[in-house]
Design brief:
By secondary structure, the protein is α/β, with parallel strands linked by helices. About 35% of the residues lie in helices and about 15% in strands. The strands form two sheets. Strands 2-1-3-8-4-7 form a six-stranded mixed β-sheet, sandwiched between helices. Strands 5-6 form a two-stranded antiparallel ribbon. Helix 4 runs parallel beside helix 5.
Length: about 270
């Protein structure tokens, strides 16, 4: 009989998000002012970085590409911790999928400005500018990649974790499902499906992106622009090099460049 290890307990992000939000909401007036100034500087930095990324996000002309670029985002460091999503985004920027889509990376500030940046970028550009959107973020409670199947209508700060207290858009649904082709994805051992991306800026960025897509951002083919959020483990848990090829593989699948895969048999686990 085949031996199988017992399933690892599913660890929620709620307590981690609560500490993160407390560090933003609970700052003293001077600290809050400093944070706002920091957010302003971060916003300027995002603009500068985005411009630099766009200037260098095209693979060599000799490499034939299909129309549309995969927009890959990572978050900057937060609370003194190096963010592996930033490391992965930088590593894959300027490369291409197996189907020929260029991968362009953008770094997001861990702030309301960063959470809104991708949606604004999608709505401001041509409808067929992107073939897919893949958000990356840090999740310290996971041991492997965690694929988020939905975003919730919750702002990343000044909330208590529910859609009613501080929604991103009061007129929008509480939950928006991913537009990624889940039927093409199969999880590997140690990876997880998740029905909640938390209640901090990772979730807000994801929800805003899904909302923008449903407001009319479409790729050059039929259907909604595919978008997904992938949470990465802390570098003390798993080094980036250990899962970087797998992230690239998932990008291929989401962008439609990889063969169809059978759905994973791993059951959905909720937080």
């Amino acid at each position: 009989m085949e031996h199988r290890d017992p399933p690892r307990a599913f660890e929620a992000t709620s307590s981690l998000d609560a500490r993160r939000i407390a560090r933003v909401d609970g700052a003293a007036p001077r600290e809050r002012t400093a944070l706002l100034a920091l957010f302003g500087c971060a916003a300027l930095l995002v603009v500068v970085v985005a411009a630099a990324v766009r200037a260098g996000d095209v693979v060599p002309a000799a490499s034939r590409r299909r129309a549309g670029t995969v927009l890959l985002t990572g978050f900057s460091n937060f609370d003194g911790v190096e963010n592996p999503s930033m490391v992965v985004a930088r590593a894959l920027n300027g490369t291409a999928t197996r189907g020929g889509h260029a991968i362009a990376a953008a770094l997001l500030a861990v702030s309301p400005v960063g959470a809104a940046a991708t949606a604004a970028r999608l709505l401001a550009g041509p409808a067929d500018a992107y073939a897919a959107v893949v958000h990356l973020g840090l999740e310290e409670s996971t041991a492997g990649l965690r694929l988020e199947i939905a975003g919730r209508n919750i702002r990343g700060a000044h909330n208590n974790g529910t859609c009613e207290t501080a929604p991103v858009d009061p007129a929008a649904p509480c939950v928006l499902a991913t537009t990624a082709p889940l039927g093409r994805l199969a999880l590997l051992p140690g990876e997880e499906w998740s029905a909640s991306a938390g209640s901090f800026f990772c979730n807000e960025a994801y929800f805003r992106t899904l909302s923008a897509i449903r407001r009319g951002v479409r790729p050059g083919r039929a259907g909604l622009l595919p978008a997904i959020f992938i949470h990465l483990p802390a570098e003390t848990t798993a080094p980036v090099d250990a899962y970087l090829p797998r992230v690239r593989e998932l990008i291929d699948v989401v962008a439609g460049a990889a063969p169809r895969l059978d759905p994973a048999t791993v059951p959905l686990r909720r937080k």
